[in-house]
Amino acid sequence: MKHLLTLLVLTLLLTSCSKNPEQFIEHLNGYWEIESVTLADGTKKEYTVNETIDFITITDSLKGFRKKMQPRFDGKYDTSHAIEALELRLENDSLNIYYTTQYDHWKETVLMANTHQLQIVNQNNIVYLYKRFTPITTE
């Protein structure tokens, strides 16, 4: 009986543990393209082709920026030069991204980030699923 109780407690502890959001930080840098968007009502839109992608860069101080890029066939990128400054904060077991432009500021929460995917939810409960961008090659 004691072993069964110990096993039950251990199982509960292991299944209730969540991922450490601090581990998401190392995966944020790079080029990302939207794979799908899920609205708050559950409606989902898939994206098979994207004209723009997001470039994210984070420094050791947990600050950085995001900007929209347009990939070209020669492997280079065009950009609008509009930059969204960002700051990462670990709050309440979540990794939050605080964006600032001269016109607005907002917060998004990273739900998941790994080598291949990034999932973010905004304040309107819209969930964005990104995949790592693979450059276009003509060779």
UniProtKB/TrEMBL annotation:
Protein name per UniProt: Lipocalin family protein
Species of provenance: Lacinutrix neustonica
